């Protein structure tokens, strides 16, 4: 049984097929076999409507399914396993050809970076999530201000010629995440996304 306190933003949550069908019955018929195909949902922020102790889950559907965003919740015992978002190096095979040079440049900076958003979902499901307007969404672990400076310098150089928008989150050791352009703003307080919602955090406290 999963411990709800250990789940982090963007974690992928796999349910047993039986538990999944119990969650989506009457919602969207097209996803009834989602878990049978090995596809996950994603851990999301809890809202007031979620039952106490339940695992809050989200599922963004691809354009061909109307771009719906399903909000589900399940008991912890229904979770079969939890996985982090895919590594960028694993998802690159699902990217369009025009993105490949950018991804190779990003991997040249660091091979540990992960992705989320449309590229991740296309890689995870084989369904066409990516469009001409899609961003490349990245999750980048960041342990210090020096790390943040190195990472944002690399991202800035690549973003200058990339054909898509780079949307990267710098993720601190405690799981809080700041958008990389927000970090570059030099504002004394930064908007940080946490598992319980957004918060303003002093710059020096984010990556001490």
TrEMBL record:
Domain Phosphoribosyl-dephospho-CoA transferase MdcG N-terminal: 8-85
Annotated Phosphoribosyl-dephospho-CoA transferase MdcG C-terminal domain residues: 88-203
Keywords: Nucleotidyltransferase, Transferase
Any one GO molecular-function label of the UniProt entry: nucleotidyltransferase activity
Pfam families referenced in this protein's UniProt entry, alphabetically: MdcG (PF10620), MdcG_N (PF20866)
Domain of life, per lineage: Bacteria
Keyword presence, 4Fe-4S: no
NCBIfam families, sorted: malonate_mdcG
Protein name from the UniProt record: Phosphoribosyl-dephospho-CoA transferase
């Amino acid at each position: 049984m999963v411990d709800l306190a250990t789940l982090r933003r963007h974690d992928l949550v796999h349910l047993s097929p039986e538990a999944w069908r119990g969650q989506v019955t009457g919602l969207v018929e097209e996803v009834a076999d989602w878990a049978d195909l090995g596809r996950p949902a994603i851990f999301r922020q809890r809202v007031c409507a979620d039952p106490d102790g339940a695992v809050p889950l989200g599922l963004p559907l691809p354009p061909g399914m109307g771009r719906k965003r399903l909000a589900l919740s399940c008991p912890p015992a229904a979770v079969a396993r939890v996985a982090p978002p895919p590594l960028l190096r694993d998802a690159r095979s699902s990217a369009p050809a025009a993105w490949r040079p950018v991804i190779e440049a990003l991997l040249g900076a660091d091979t540990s970076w992960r992705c989320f958003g449309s590229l991740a979902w296309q890689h995870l499901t084989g369904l066409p999530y990516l469009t001409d307007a899609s961003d490349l969404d990245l999750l980048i672990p960041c342990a210090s201000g020096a790390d943040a400076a190195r990472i944002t310098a690399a991202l800035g150089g690549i973003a200058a010629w990339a054909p898509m928008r780079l949307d990267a989150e710098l993720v601190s050791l405690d799981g809080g995440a700041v958008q990389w352009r927000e970090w570059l703003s030099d504002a004394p307080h930064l908007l940080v996304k946490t598992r319980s919602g957004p918060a303003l955090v002093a710059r020096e406290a984010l990556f001490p």
